[in-house]
Design goal:
The chain is of the alpha+beta class. It is 53% helix and 12% strand. It folds into four domains: 17-43 and 165-205; 57-145, Beta-Lactamase (2-Layer Sandwich); 220-302, Orthogonal Bundle (Helix Hairpins); 311-455, Histidine kinase-like ATPase, C-terminal domain (Heat Shock Protein 90).
C-alpha cells in the first residue's frame, strides 16, 4: 500500500501535473491564436510597394532634417518655431533645433551628450541624414538633428517603424507565458488545496478546513471546498460521538458488573444470604441485558438495517395503540393522558421501530410528569404529505443549553437516575432512518414538547 503523505501546510509542494497541463494548454492556445491573428493583421495592413508607409526610418529622418534645414535657412527662426509648434500640437514632432547655447527653440530638454553626438555627426557629414548645421538669416548657426532610438541622443526617443517580427514574436511568447502561468495557477491552486486537505483528513486531522484557503472564489470548485468542509465537520462530529459513546458504554456496563462482582463476593462470604444475592445478580443481569439490547437496536438503526423490512402501516392506528398502553400506565400513577386521532395516515415504515420511537417519547412524558398532571398527544396531517405528532407534558423541562443534546445516547436531561439515556436516542435515529425529524422545546408554564414529523406514502 502506498503511504499517504501530507505536509503541515498547503502549497508546500511544487506544482503538480495539473498545473503543467493547464500551463502548456493555455500557452499553446495563446501562441497559436496570436500567430494566426498576427499573420492575418500583418497581411491586411501591409502597404503596397512604393507607398509612403514603406519609406524607411532613415529616409524619413533624412527628409525631415532636410525640410527643417531649408525652412530655417530661408524662412528664419520665427517661421521655424511656428512650424515646430504646429507639429508638436499634432503629435508628430521628431526634430530638435538647437542654438549655439545648446537651447532648443521650443525649450525642450536636451542633454549635452546628445548635442555633442549630433554635432560630431554634422561635422563628419554636413549633409548627413541624422544631423545638420544650418545658418539662419540672422547669421546664427543652429544644429538640426533627430534623436534616433538606438543612438541614445537626447531624452526623447521615438520608434518611427513597427517592431520587427522577431521582437514581436518574443514579446508575444513572454506575454502568453505570463498569462498562461497566472491562469494555470488560478485553476490548479484550489485543487492542490483540496488534495492537501484530503491527505490531512486521511492522516486523522479532522479539523482541516478548505474554505479559508479559497478566499473570495466563487463557482463549482469553491462549492466543492465547502462540501469538503461539511464532510470533514461531520466526520469530526461522528468520531467525537463515537469516542463519547465508547466512554459512556464502558461506564454504564462497569457499574452493574461491579455490583455483580460485589454480589458474588457477598454470596461467598455469607451463604445465609444466598437467595438475596441471587436476586441482586438477576436484577443486574437483566439490566445488562436491557442495556445491550438497546445498544444493538441503536446500532441497527444507525446502520439503516431496517431498510428492507418496511411495510405499509396506518400511523394513526399505531399511535392510538401506543397511547392506549401509555394511558393505562398513566392512570395507575394518577396522571392523565389525552389524545385524539381521526382518519388514516399510511406510511411505508418498519412498524416495530416507529412504534418504539413513539412509545419512548410518550412514556418519557408520562414518567417525568408529576402526579395529577395532564399529558397531551396531538396528531395532524400537514401538506405536502407529512404527519406531525406533538407530545406535551408538564415535567421539569430541560435546560435550554441541554436541548440540542437531549437525543444523544446516554444523556439524561431531567434526572440522573432511571434508564440508560438511550430511549430518545433510539427514537431520534428511528425517525431519521424513515426520513422524518424530531425536535424538543421547553413548554410555557413548565414541561417539554416533543414534535415528530414523518413522511406519508401518497395514495
Amino acid at each position: 500500500m502506498t503511504p499517504i503523505e501530507s505536509s503541515g501546510k498547503p502549497g508546500s509542494k511544487p506544482p503538480g501535473r495539473l498545473f503543467w497541463k493547464f500551463l502548456f494548454s493555455f500557452w499553446l492556445s495563446l501562441m497559436v491564436t496570436g500567430i494566426v491573428v498576427g499573420s492575418l493583421v500583418s497581411l491586411y495592413q501591409r502597404p503596397p510597394p512604393g507607398s509612403p508607409a514603406e519609406i524607411s526610418t532613415t529616409e524619413r529622418s533624412s527628409l525631415g532634417i532636410a525640410a527643417v534645414a531649408t525652412i530655417l535657412r530661408y524662412g528664419g527662426v520665427e517661421t521655424m518655431r511656428g512650424i515646430l509648434e504646429d507639429r508638436r500640437r499634432h503629435g508628430s514632432l521628431h526634430v530638435f533645433v538647437v542654438d549655439d547655447n545648446d537651447q532648443d527653440l521650443l525649450g525642450r530638454p536636451v542633454s549635452e551628450a546628445a548635442v555633442r553626438e549630433a554635432l560630431r555627426a554634422a561635422e563628419s557629414n554636413p549633409e548627413g541624414q541624422s544631423a545638420q548645421q544650418v545658418t539662419a538669416p540672422d547669421g546664427r548657426t543652429y544644429l538640426v538633428f533627430v534623436p534616433l532610438a538606438k543612438s541614445g541622443l537626447g531624452r526623447l526617443r521615438w520608434r518611427s517603424e513597427p517592431l520587427p517580427p522577431s521582437e514581436l514574436l518574443v514579446i508575444g511568447l513572454l506575454a502568453s507565458l505570463v498569462v498562461s502561468m497566472m491562469l494555470a495557477w488560478y485553476l490548479s491552486k484550489p485543487i492542490s488545496n483540496l488534495r492537501w486537505a484530503f491527505a490531512a483528513v486521511a492522516l486523522g486531522r479532522l479539523d482541516t478546513r478548505v474554505a479559508p484557503l479559497m478566499g473570495s472564489r466563487r463557482g463549482e470548485i469553491a462549492d466543492l471546498g465547502h462540501e469538503f468542509d461539511t464532510m470533514a465537520r461531520r466526520l469530526q462530529e461522528l468520531m467525537a460521538a463515537q469516542r463519547q459513546l465508547l466512554h459512556d458504554v464502558s461506564h454504564e456496563i462497569r457499574s452493574p458488573l461491579a455490583r455483580l462482582d460485589a454480589a458474588v463476593g457477598l454470596a461467598r462470604q455469607d451463604p445465609a444470604r444466598f437467595e438475596e444475592t441471587i436476586e441482586r445478580i438477576e436484577r443486574e443481569t437483566n439490566r445488562l441485558d436491557q442495556l445491550i439490547g438497546e445498544l444493538l437496536t441503536l446500532s441497527r438503526l444507525e446502520s439503516d438495517a431496517v431498510g428492507d423490512r418496511r411495510e405499509l402501516v396506518d400511523l394513526m392506528e399505531l399511535i392510538v395503540e401506543v397511547c392506549e398502553d401509555a394511558r393505562f400506565e398513566a392512570q395507575a400513577s394518577g396522571r392523565t393522558l389525552d389524545y385524539s386521532s381521526d382518519g388514516t395516515a399510511y406510511a411505508r415504515v418498519q412498524s416495530e421501530m416507529i412504534y418504539r420511537a413513539i412509545e419512548n417519547v410518550v412514556r418519557n412524558a408520562v414518567k417525568y410528569s408529576p402526579p395529577g398532571a395532564r399529558i397531551e398527544v396531538e396528531v395532524q396531517q400537514q401538506p405536502p404529505g407529512r404527519l406531525l405528532l406533538r407530545v406535551l407534558d408538564r415535567g421539569p423541562g430541560v435546560a435550554e443549553e441541554d436541548l440540542p443534546r437531549l437525543f444523544e445516547p446516554f444523556f439524561r436531561g431531567r434526572d440522573a437516575g432511571g434508564g440508560f439515556g438511550l430511549g430518545l436516542a433510539i427514537a431520534r435515529q428511528a425517525v431519521l432512518v424513515h426520513g422524518g425529524s424530531i425536535e424538543a422545546a421547553n413548554r410555557e408554564g413548565g414541561g417539554l414538547v416533543v414534535e415528530i414529523s414523518l413522511p406519508l406514502t401518497p395514495g
